[in-house]
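Schema walkthrough. Field components (list of strings):
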Amino acid sequence: MDFRLTDEQKALRDMVRGFASKEIAPHAQAFDEEGRIPKGLLDQMAGLGLMGICVPPEYGGAGMDDLAYIMALEEVCKASASVGLAMSVNNTLYGDPLVRFGTHEQKVRWLTPAARGERLGCYALTEPGSGSDAMALAMTATPKGDGFLLNGTKLFITNGEIASQAIIFATMDKSKGHKGVTAFLVDKASPGVAVMKKERKMGLLASDTCALSFENVYVPADHVLGPVGQGYKVAFSTLDAGRIGIAAQALGIAEAALEAAIAYAKRREQFGKPIAEFEAIQWMLADMDTEIEAARLLTYRAAMLKAEGRPRFTREASMAKLYSSEMANRVTARAVQIFGGSGYMKDYPVERYCRDAHALPLYEGTSEIQRLVIARDLLKEAER
Ligand SMILES: Cc1cc2nc3c(=O)[nH]c(=O)nc-3n(C[C@H](O)[C@H](O)[C@H](O)COP(=O)(O)OP(=O)(O)OC[C@H]3O[C@@H](n4cnc5c(N)ncnc54)[C@H](O)[C@@H]3O)c2cc1C
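Field assembly_structure (string):
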């Protein structure tokens, strides 16, 4: 696989690197303490085209490829994983299914303002009773007149408060299992939609995560995204793409942790010399660097497969997400170790990296679910 970057990809990465190091990284700790991302920052990012990187220009996006997007996301996450998460949900979980399944009219109405950052989107699949077993969802869509009435509760929704619009999943017939599920586009200002509990989390403190409730929310038939009864295809293919984004988030966090650990190891002296001169520290740094590189190869490979238009890259996306998210936990824990007691204090960013990394093996499919997806595909391939 050829990882030589195009001039366009390099230009985007370098632009985002400069922007993130100046406008995001110096304030990331403050965003976490305030528990929010300033709207002005998201507007600035939208102005740079970062809210719809792969969305075609006719629908307000930058029209770039998936590898360019992944590299841009990595740079933003290196500065703040919370800001990166808001960006990735709007780009991938909300934007990507609209690009692939939306009609022209839906793209004009629901995608264009999201890609321009004027009306952010969110993706609401998880419910109190269904997480890993997503298709066991209980939210209902009941036919009413020319449309449907939606009833139910969605849990742990990223951008749930700041978003203006949502892709939600509901069942029309629970007895049909996953084939009863349909995807809907919902304006959050619709009567009956309410933002419920705002979650208090371990990490990603600036990212907004909340429950959304839907009580007799009427949506007309043209708000159905993709075919009726094929919401599972919309949901799972979107997660394939989203998982590459989580892998990029892991890369960004881990790179930031490694850079901080190197700088600290070179300046912190014990026993009369910088701790970077101790072999124990050097081995930790070497392992961190090697694992980041391995994760990058898996992540960029998955992004390139998607960019090439491969209809299926499920296994590669799961491998990238599984390895990278667990890698980020190992790397950030080692960074805290290299900082010693200081690593546990909020004066340094490594404790934030460590807390943020903990979310990665949980969302968009836990590590256990990624292993299940990979093994299932592997065994199917062996049968062929
Ligand atoms: C910060 C954050 C943001 C999120 N944002 C969103 C969002 O924007 N939209 C959205 O829809 N959801 C979102 N989620 C929800 C997330 O996707 C779910 O938490 C995740 O899918 C896991 O579901 P669960 O929490 O119900 O865990 P459960 O499914 O209850 O799993 C509990 C444990 O059981 C294991 N397990 C479950 N099934 C199996 C199995 N078959 N084999 C082996 N082990 C298994 C799991 O791996 C896990 O260890 C977010 C979550 C977090 C933490």
